Amino acid sequence: MLELVSLSKKFGSFTAVDDLSLKVDAGDVYGFLGPNGAGKTTTIKMVATLLKPTSGKVTINGFDAHQSPETAKKFLSYVPDQPFLYDKLTGKEFLLFVAKMYMMDESDAEKGIEEASSIFEVKPWLNKRIEDYSQGMRQRLVLAAALVHKPKLIVIDEPMVGLDPKGAETFKAHIRLVAENGSAVFMTTHQLSLAKEVCNRVGVIHNGRLVYEDLMAVFSGDGVASLEKKYIELTS
After folding, report:
1. What is the pTM of this model?
2. What are the DSSP calls for 1-59, one per residue?
């Protein structure tokens, strides 16, 4: 579903991402881990076509994301770490706006909005302006928007920002379900406990290079503690 091939990004003489290659298949929840400044968000932005690679390639569902961006992005939902919302729109208007960007017909859009807003419990707020939403409710709305068109690939940069415990549990339960239904999820997080709970595969990026990749099952014996130990060894 998602493949990065020798992906690199330079800003002048600084190499933010260095020869990165990985695959995320349908059914995967891939945890992309690394310290601040490791290259996670730069990678995510190249996947979302917000940044152009210096070299290498991003393919989404077989399409080159930078050679055929309109086609590739039909399969993609992207949730940034600091989402932008139109404060003067209602939640419903925002979700309709997202649906129209993906050229959904009215019936499919209404069905997608109903399902997504129910999952993240924003239905009671849909007729209120976004400027009246709390930080957590904004994050719930953004996560709902990511599901409206039933994407094949969901790319999320720090999904838990602002979520209360109930919202966090809803996210964890549903993101695995999304993968089980055949989509792929590629997400960054600093919460190793979250990665342990929802990811079946994990990769660690450090100084722009992928320094580790494996199935999450290898940590099943010692759980989060062993993942934390491995992470610290790799990034110290």
Report:
1. 0.89
2. -EEEEEEEEEETTEEEEEEEEEEE-TT-EEEEE--TTSSHHHHHHHHTTSS--SEEEEE
